[in-house]
Task: structure prediction
Amino acid sequence: MTIASTMTFHPRPEPGQPTPWNFPAPTRSALPNGLTVLRCDRPGQALVAAELVLDVPLAAEPREQEGVSTILARAFSEGTESLTAEEFAGELERAGANLDAHADHTVLRLSLEVPASRLERGLALMADAVRAPAFPEHEIERLVANRLDEIVHEQANPARRAALAFYSELFDQSDRLSRPRSGSAETVEAIDRAAVTTFYAAHVRPATGTLVVVGDFSGVDFDAVLAATIGRWTGTPGAHVPAAPVRGNDTGRVVIVDRPGSVQTQLLIGRIGPDRHDDTWAAQILGTYCLGGTLTSRLDRVLREEKGYTYGVRAFAQPLRSGADGQGRALLAISGSVDTESTAPALADTWQILRTLAAEGLTDEERDIAVQNLVGVAPLRYETASAVCATLADQVEQELPDNYQAEVYRQLAETTTAAATDAVVAAFPPDRLVAVLVGDASVIAAPLKDLGIGEVTVVSA
Amino acid sequence: MAQGFTISEHTLANGLRVVLSEDHLTPVAAVCLWYDVGSRHEVSGRTGLAHLFEHLMFQGSGQVKGNGHFELVQGAGGSLNGTTSFERTNYFETMPAHQLELALWLEADRMGSLLEALDQESLDNQRAVVKNERRQRYDNVPYGTAFERLTAMAFPDGHPYHHTPIGSMADLDAATLGDAQDFFRTYYAPNNAVLAVVGDIDPEQTLAWVQKYFGSIPGHDGKRPPRDGSTVVRSSEAPLREHVVAEVPSRAVMQAYLLPLDGTRESDAADLALTILGSGESSRLYNRLVRHDRLAVTAGFGLLRLSGAPSLGWLDAKTSGEATVEAVEAAIDQELTRFAAEGPTAKELERAQAQIEREWLDRLDTVSGRADELCRYAVLFGDPKLADTALSRVLDVTAEEIQAVAQKYLTPDNRAVLTYEPGAGAAADEQTADDRTADEDEEVQA
Result:
C-alpha cells in the first residue's frame, strides 16, 4: 500500500567540516605522600568527577573471607574519625556530592561527583573516607547482612545469574576470577570488623594509589585543595604486586542453568582473548562492533530485525585483570535474552553468523561505518567530566599510558577490513565458545543437544 | 538554564515549534523531537500502541530504507534512540556538530513520509521485538510487573494512566497495520511536536535547515486529546492493595501515592518531601529501615512527575533477612506520620536542595539532556523558558510547604500498596516509566 506524501523531499545532506576533537590529555604529578594525581581541565563543566584508584586486588582477599574488598569499599562511607555514618552521608548530600565505591579484580575504586563550587568539600570527604575511616562495628555487621541479602537477589536475576555461572564455568576453580567479585554467602558471613581493618591496613595506602580529577578548576587553587584534602593522607610505602596471568577453559560447551517457568532464556556466550595491551585491540573492537555492537550489526540484523527473537543481543570485549605485563585478558562475549521457544533457533542463527563471518569476512562498507561510528562518537561519549574521568581511571587500573584512548582512536581509523576480520574471527571461534543459558531447561535443553555446539549440561539454579 | 544558556523560539507555518540553544563547549549537537502523544492517548484494546509505534519509526521512511535511521546516524558518528512514556514520545540524536543537518533531514523524513515505508512485515517484526522487550524488562525479572500493578491500582480502570506504556501481550498481538497508520495520521503532525536543537550550532543556519526539511510537511488537526486524567475517580470496589506470592528473592513493600500535578509549586514541595524521606543514605526511610531497624536492604522514595494526572510518589523497600512486611509497613507509617508532624529540619532541607541541584546539573550536563528539558517544558507546559527557572522554583519552596504537602498527600488513604512474599508461583528489577527502542549496554560481571 502506498500513501502519497505531500511533503517536499530533498536529497540527503552532506556533512559539513568536522571540528577536530582529541581525547583530553591529563597532567600527571605526585603528592608528597606518594599518591599519583592525574588532572584534566575541562572548562565549563559544572560537575567535577574524581576517581581514586587503590591498588587492592581481589586475589589478596583471604580465601575464607572473600567479599571483604566489597565490604571495605562500602564501609568507606560509613563514617570517619570525626563523623558518624549518618553524619557522613548527610555531609556528602549537603555538598551535593555522590560517592560510590566498587571493588574489582585489580583495584578498588572510589568515584566522586560534585558541583565545581563545592569541589574542596567533596574531595575532603572522599579523602577522610580513605584516610581516617571509622569502620564502626555495627555498620560493618549491617553491610555484611545486606550483602547476604543482595546475594539472594543476584541469584534471582537472570542476567546476574548467567554472569555468575559463566565466570565459574570459564575459569579454574583455583582462580579468584571464577568466584563472585563480592563474595559468596559462606565467605561473606565470615567477614567482621577485624577482617575489614586488617585488610585495610595491609592494602590501602597513598603510595600505590592514583587520584584522577576532571572538571572546571577555574575557581579553585587546585594544588592547595589537594594539599588540604587527599594530601593529608599518610601511609606506609608499598609495592605493587603484578596480577596472575588469566587463563580460561574455552572448550566449546553449553551449560543450562535451570530456571523453570522462565519466559526468556538469558544468553552469555564467550571466552577470553586479547586485552588492551595487545596490538590487535583496536581491530578486535572494530570487528566485535561489526558482529554485535548495535542493532544494525550482524547479530541483531538477524536475531532482532529479521526474526524478532530478542530485544537486542550485544557482542563486547571487557578487560579482566589487565596489567602492564600483558598477562591480562579480556572477556569476549555475546549476551542478551531471547524468548524461550526461540532459544535453539537463536543459537543456531548465532553460530551460523559466526561461521559465515569466518568464511567470508567483513565487508569494507561494514568496516567504514563501524570506524565512523566508533571514532565519530568520541566527542559525544566524552561530553561530561565523569565520562573522561572513568576512562582515565580505567587506563590507570589497566596500567595503560595516559594517551592510550587517544591512540586507540588513531589506530581505529587506520585499521583495515582484513585486520578487523582477523581479530573478530580469532575472538569468536564457533568451536571454542562457552554458552551459559539461564532458562527453562525442560523446554530448551532437548533442541540444543541437536545443534552440535558442544556438550549440553543442566545445573539447577 | 542554571548556567544561563540562550534560548530562541520559533514556530513554522505548519505549526512545528522549534527551540534552539547554542553551546560551543564541545563540537556536538543534540536534536530532540517530542511528539505530544503517549500511552495516555491509547484506547481500550490497543494498549502499547504508542510504544510499538515508536519502534516503527526506526523501520524506514520515504527516503530512508530499512534500518537507515540507525545506520545513517551511527555511520555519521551519532547516537540515537526513542522512548515512550505516559505523556509523550521522544526521538533524539546526538551528532558531531558537522552532521547536524543529516539528523534534521532524517527526522523530517519520518515525520512527513513514514507511511510510505511502513508495512506488515515491519509491524510483525517489531511486535515480536517489543514482546521480547516486555519479557526482558518486566515478565522475566523479579518484581518486574510491580510498576504495572501499582499504577493500575493508583489509577483505576478507565483512567487514561491505568495501563503503562509497554502494554499487554494481548493488545500487542491485536495491533494491526491499520491501527499503526491511523495512529501516525492522528498524532504525528508538525503542529503536535516540538523540536529542540542544542549545542555547537549556528542558530540562523539551523533554523534555515529546519524550515527547508520540515517546512513543507502539512499540519493537521486530527489529534484526539487524551481523556482527562487530572482527577482520579475511584469506585469503592477499586482495589488499593495487592499481595503477590511469587518467585521473588525477598519480601517487598511498594507504595504509590497520588501527588500534585507536575508544574505546580506543590509538586516541587512533594519532590523535596520525597527526597528528604527517601533519597540517599541520609534520608529518613534509609536511616530507619536500613540503618537502625535493619528491616530492609533498600528503602527509597522517588517521584514520577506527571502533568496530566497526579504525579506518583514511589516507595520501594526490599526486606532484609527475616523481616516481615508488617514490620516494614509499620515503620514506614511511623516515619511518614513523624515527618507530617515535625516537617523537615533546616539541615534536611539544605541537603535535599543540594541533591536536587546536583541532579539538575547532571541532566543539563549534556546537550541531549538540555534539549530534552526544553522539549519537556515546551510540550507539557507551553514554554521552554520555564526550564531556565525550574531549579530556582524548587529551591524557593519552604519547610512549611513541604510539611503541608506531606500532611495532605503522604497518607494511608491516598496510596496503593503492593506487597510481595517469596513462594511458588509465576516467576515474576525495577523498571522505569519509559520504554525505548534500543536496549542500553550494561557490563557483565560476576
Summary: The domain at 241-428 of chain B is CATH 3.30.830.10 (Cytochrome Bc1 Complex; Chain A, domain 1).
